[in-house]
Amino acid sequence: MAVTRRELIATPLAAALASALPASVLAQAGEPLRVGALNPITGAGSPYGPGMQRAILMAIEEVNAAGGAGGRRLEAFAEDTQTKPDAAVLAAKKLIDVNKVQAILGTWSSGVTLAVMPLTDEANLIQMNVSGAPAISTQDKKDLVWRYQATNDRFGAAFAEIAAKRGYKRPATMAFNNASGIGNTEGFRKAWEKRGGKVVASVVYEPSRPSYRSELQKILAEKPDVIVTGSYLPDTTIIIREWFQSGDKNAWIIPGWAANPDLVKALGAEACEGLISVDTVSAENSAAFKHFDAMYTKAMGRPASTNVYAPMAYDMLITLALAMEAAGPGATVAQINARIRDIANPPGTAVATFAEGKAALAKKQKINYEGASSKLDFDQYGDVSPDFGVYVIEKGQLVRRDVVPIPADYRP
Amino acid sequence: MTLVGVANLAVNGLVEGAVIALPALALTLVMSIARFPNAATGDLMTLGAYVAVGVQALLVGSAFGTPLLGMTLATVAAVIVCAVVSVAAYELIFRRLGRAAMVASLLASIGLAFLIRSLITLVIGHEQHTFALPLVRAWNFGGLRILPSDLVIGAVALVVLAAVFAWLRFGRSGRLLRAVADNPDLARLSGIRAQRLMWLLWALAGVLSAIGGVLLGVKSVVMPELGWELLLPAFAAMILGGIGSPAGAVIGALLMGVGQELSVPLVGPTYKIAVAFGVLFVVLLLRPAGLFGRPELAR
């Protein structure tokens, strides 16, 4: 799912157009709420970032067309994180100091979110992300950070569930040396040991090495029947190539952002045959997903199922807008933030769109937004619990073989 | 860890060392004659890898697209581009800074490194690219597993290194180059015309970087940071072997590669890089000029 250069240019352009809408739309009273769409347009997140940004802009149009939220319209400012913490911090500073945004939505990698969080916290802004690092939960002291993707701990628990379901007995782990990579394999280890199992070998490897043969050798010496990774695309490419050439036969469980069509493109179908790729799945049977999928397919020319992060980004803006509506006219950022759990968690009338939610709130009902990405029930840390899809690479295609739920109250 | 396991680790280290040896040799040659550490060496490798990946992708499907012919033509293209860019960098930048302090050239080379990398990112993007080569299973000699691709990488590196050494030792211009490195003033007094030699030197540095970049790209994945990540190990190999000593750079690279991999069972892969630099530290304590270095260049 390559993104063309033209699309990259078109996305910020759309943002500029959205913020330059004619004054007639400004009929709603009150200052507009300014939203920073801070997404990975380039870098490792570039397969997902442009779709995320488009989803946020689409949601803003939808909310504004429905008469705004809490008597205000929304205004977007789009920026690129380049999937790099340093570039993301510069972009976040610009959004906060120059554009005076009240919320920053859609940071993707954990490194970027952890770098941007101190800035949004300091300025008391709402931060919404799709990152996995467990540290994001604990460092969110002011309860201003909302995570729409599963934590690495939950990914690890899903890996353990899948390994157990498939009857593996001797798992080993390989982790890229950063918060997310180690988070995945540690999450797996904790969940696996809870089941009474034992991890037979584990390595944490350094980024950007020309070869990972010695690391593989150390792992393979213990004869694992499955290797679970917390890895990214470039290192996974090298590891799977060297593993395939070595002629070993064990299975692999790899996060979806590393074992994706780009990996098959780099290595060919034969080397990738049988690799298990795990990623969260959108709430594909929900009314919200169908509503979003129709819009997304029209705008991007491909279905929303091709970008699991786009429905998450869309849900960010819809939950924010519903919280604004619930908080009422003239609400502060803190007051809006305090209503996010109210409108997303049960009990309440289940709603699938912003317009439905707005109508129910007008009738003084308690609402429960069931999102396009997941049911969106935020726990005490502001984390959600989407289901996991299990994909097996068969003849070069990622084929979904199973969906694994992890209980919302799961704690490692 | 069994003996076979240790031998496997040593092989991994030798292959990695052989790849690092090429840029280390380029660094040390430039250092001994132009007298500054050329920080653009790594990104010149990246440029070579990108040129080769691009040419190979164009050839795939045509009569020239077979793995052997395609890679050869791709490497030749990379060698030509990198040699031209390297000589141009000398003419446009480093020659003009020749009379200034060493740090001026060093900073200029860092700037050139950023320029090359940024241009690659801007024009081609940040996504990874790989050479379209068939994956061949390892040969197993009683547990000692040799990847055919590693064998080719190691062989190409050794042939290139041998050719450069033979030329430095026996070739006429190679001998002149050594004379200039040894004593530039004496060389000029003897009637050696330095200009053409400098072009040769920079072209050679470009050729070594290009081939190093292609080999590294075949072994890993081609991304904008490919060569930059390898610059520090190449610097370390040059210093370990003794600045200005071509043989020292190669032996330094191999030693660091093998030392690093052999430390995996002892300290784990996270700290193996620290071990490689630990070796460097100890050698410099005992022999400040490096293994084969001359003290006056180390200063």
Task: Give an overview in words.
The complex is a heterodimer of chains A (about 400) and B (about 300). With about 400 residues, chain A is α/β, with parallel strands linked by helices. Chain A has 16 helices and 14 strands. In chain A, about 45% of the residues lie in helices and about 20% in strands. A seven-stranded mixed beta sheet of chain A has the order 7-6-8-9-10-13-14. The radius of gyration of chain A is 21 Å and the shape is elongated. In chain B, helix 9 packs across helix 10, helix 9 packs parallel to helix 12 and helix 10 packs across helix 12. Chain B has a two-stranded antiparallel sheet with strand order 1-2. The interface of A and B includes residues 177, 214 and 244 of A.
Lay out the secondary structure:
The complex is a heterodimer of chains A (412) and B (299).
Chain A lengths: L4 H15 L13 E7 L9 H17 L8 E7 L4 H13 L5 E5 L2 H13 L3 E4 L5 H5 L5 E3 L4 H14 L5 E6 L2 H16 L6 E5 L7 H8 L5 E5 L2 H14 L4 E5 L5 H7 L1 H4 L3 E5 L6 H14 L8 H19 L5 H6 L1 H5 L4 E3 L2 H9 L4 E3 L18 E7 L2 E8 L8
Parallel strand pairs in A: 1-2, 1-3, 3-4, 4-5, 6-7, 6-8, 8-9, 9-10, 11-12
Antiparallel strand pairs in A: 10-13, 13-14
Helix pairs in contact in A: 1-2, 2-12, 2-13, 3-4, 6-7, 9-10, 13-16
Chain B lengths: L2 H31 L7 H19 L7 H28 L7 H23 L14 E3 L2 E3 L1 H23 L1 H11 L1 H6 L4 H26 L8 H14 L4 H17 L1 H4 L4 H15 L8 H4 L1
Antiparallel strand pairs in B: 1-2
Helix pairs in contact in B: 1-5, 1-8, 1-9, 1-10, 2-3, 2-4, 2-8, 2-9, 3-8, 5-6, 5-8, 6-8, 9-10, 9-12, 10-12
Structure keywords:
heterodimer; A: 412 residues; alpha/beta; seven-stranded mixed β-sheet; five-stranded parallel β-sheet; 16 helices; 14 strands; elongated; B: 299 residues; mainly alpha; ABC transporter involved in vitamin B12 uptake, BtuC; two-stranded antiparallel sheet; 74% helix
Give a quick summary of the entry:
In chain A, 43% of the residues lie in helices and 18% in strands. Chain A has 16 helices and 14 strands. The two termini of chain A are 35 Å apart.
